[in-house]
User: Fold these one by one.
Assistant:
Number 1:
Amino acid sequence: MENELNKPYKICDVNREKKKGVVALSLEDLLLKVPEKLGLPAENLTVVLESDGTEVDDEEYFSTLDPDTSLMILHGNERWAPNMPKCQVSLDQTDDVHLGDKCQVASLVGRLQHNLCHISLLGGQDLELLSDMDPDSLADIVTDRDNRIILEHIKEASGRILLEKRQAQDAMELLKLYHQSVSNGTEDVSPPKQERV
């Protein structure tokens, strides 16, 4: 009898740009309403909790959700990601040459302030931007001393991780070269024979 109650839910797309309210009786009912509400195709849809990405894949779990739970609807290969703040750096017109880099650094710092563990998932270009940043140049987004200390730690950690990633890439390249030379028979892996005197 409890499944016969319609409950309200908040649904959004993967970018969190389209947000709608929907009343649904079941997970199946919710999925039937998604195409009309969010304009997504009716097939290959996945429902996850908007807050942490937990997949809602059966009616039993769906029935335990509280009213007004925020759900994200993913289509195809879309993946859940945490809600990151938008880059909101106000710069003078004279600074517009470096606007792209500064905006990107500000966005990266904003993401990392929510979860510093994400620094290890960044790519080489992002790590380079962070390791090359000047924390004093970000005074318009970081005002207090504690946040500047955090920026120094982010700068140091990103430089260290970038170095480790480059060392790992170099080691992999050396292993590939070694493997190729062994495969081609150009590398003699046996110890050299010693002549008897």
Note: Helices lie at 27-38, 59-64, 99-114, 124-132, 145-183.
Number 2:
Amino acid sequence: MFAKEALSYFAIPLPDRTEMDDTQMRAQAREFYDRMRRRHTVRDYSDRPVPRDVIESCIRTAGTAPSGANHQPWHFVAIADPALKQRVRAAAEEEERRFYDGGAGDEWIKALEPIGTNADKPHLTVAPWLIVVFAQRWGTFQDGTRFKNYYVPESVNIATGFLLAALHHAGLCTLTHTPNPMKFLNEALGRPASEKPTMIIAVGHPAKDATIPSVAKQKKPLAEILSVFD
């Protein structure tokens, strides 16, 4: 993406300027909140297919996220192939069994009880798509030499947030899954050592009998998550 000879600053006028009055801003902010508060993490999926171009559009949205030095240190792998999803599930469940069989402390396991999770991850094969998020710890110039990426976790986390919002906006449900360790994903998906897998996102439509844990509806009030100095 970057060439050594092109590392210079050049300013252009702000494109895509948006002008709203205060009333319009309030309406847009409330509309987006109303949409996002209906986002739920879902573990029960139908087998209804999701078109590839929908997934591509949502990942394209993730690619517009801000990043350290604009290096865009992320890569997304979208998986619909049943055999590959099964391979990912088998490896993820192996790690999860270690987690639930003593790898996690008692406090962590206790904290998960209201969520109702366990080592079985059928959503990894039932959901029509898995999206694996990779963080690129370093990049390469066109001549093959390395360059450092900056604020990689922060940049990738922002892009992942964009992706989740885009998928929800497209009418889809998601589940974020973080087996630890996840190094098996590099081998399974042919990704280089410069990339670290950070998350598996199951994507699809909810099953007709889908449920969520009641605790998931308990969100902290604004007063607990916001401090204002004006």
Note: The chain has one domain: 41-209.
Number 3:
Amino acid sequence: MKAIGYRKAGSLDREDALIAFEAERPSALGHDVLVRVQAVSVNPVDCKIRTNRDPSGDTPAILGWDAVGEVVEIGEKVTRFNIGDIVWYAGAIDRDGTNAEYHVVDARIAGRAPQSISATEAAALPLTTLTAYEMLFDRLRVHDPVPGAAPAVLIIGGAGGVGSIAIQLLRAKTDLHVIATASRDETRAWVKELGAHHVIDHSIPLAEQVEGLGLGAPGFVFSTTHTHQYLESIAELIAPQGRFGLIDDPDGLDIRLFKQKSISTHWEFMYTRSLFGTPDIARQGQILDEVAGLVDAGQTRSTATENLGPLSVENLRKAHEMLESKSVRGKLVLEGF
């Protein structure tokens, strides 16, 4: 089968940073299904792994952890899907990725793809949806009010892939006020379009802006990027006994700032359930099924902002370049080979 990968970790400015090659088509065993890939999206984790992690074997490593495709083979333990079903998923970080013609995935972490949007539109959502959903509802437990706090969530980095779907999930599933940060006219308009009640500028101090909204101190803060820059502001603006969550990887995180307010801290890693085979691994498939329903009901929309064309080294390199520029709003998608 056709695939795109890399042989050695490093920067994108090398001619062989991404290469096309022929790989053996995998088979579906156990809980796995084999999927003919129809569309993928590209995430910051793709760039991070390509830069820092050498392939473990002699063959190139295949990146990509978002996909939509058709089930063409099922393992003997699979009861959830049939051949011909169209599924969507974010995969597992310890297995080969989706930048290939065929891909195997544990059926328990896959869901039935939405029927009302195209494969490329759907491919934008799984990884960011799982990240946002797990943070909001499994970690921060936003349905459980913080005593005395404003019924509000502050999302730092509202225009990125995770922020874009987090805004929508909050509007679809809660009555909380959604405050999102964005610093450019384009991104401010984007987060308002997605449903943010209030937009503030993360390039200037946050606490004063939140106070100026007149809502009170929010009970929840979800930081998707540059957390180290905002930690003092978060400690100042969040309500006592509030809940704080992050998904990025700051070099250091001094949560002593949170002690007096008894702020709980939650670090979301979307791959935890698949990496450790947790007893609730099927939770991810259930989340994706639920969100597919929200999409088909018109309560949530795709966050795809640019289709870069079919999977090719040239198009995938362009996607990595755009992500590394850190100016992308929403998600970049590609069609299958």
Note: The longest strand covers residues 32-42.
